[in-house]
Amino acid sequence: xxxxxxxxxxxxxxxxxxxxxxxxxxxxxxxxxxxxxxxxxxxxxxxxxxxxxxxxxxxxxxxxxxxxxxxxxxxxxxxxxxxxxxxxxxxxxxxxxxxxxxxxxxxxxxxxxxxxxxxxxxxxxxxxxxxxxxxxxxxxxxxxxxxxxxxxxxxxxxxx
Length: 160
Fold this sequence. Notes:
By secondary structure, this protein is an all-alpha fold.
């Protein structure tokens, strides 16, 4: 099945190749923060209170000095405990947040960033009631999906 994100963001990995690890980490951070708090359909209203707290902690961690591996381990442990919670959105965005936290210790590869960007789009689709069986036509007609794609293209410097 064709996916709007894959069609529109096909050049994402190539755009990331020449970026520094710090820039890549910043893109991961901004993409997650956007879909959780600032998009047309913010995920914050769909996440459980614990998931939202952990995502906020991951975002905050990426904004500060990452020289505290013990805190990273605690975040991983708490996120892992919630990843299987019965919700269509929690596991997807927690997975993206776990990738963000993991890359505080390891330098993010282009593929790591692409995974986070796609998970942000996928979580948005879930909030729109589309699930993974949404047709391309459904996605094209959905402004929340376009909002995420436009934001991600802006982050990567890809023309719309």
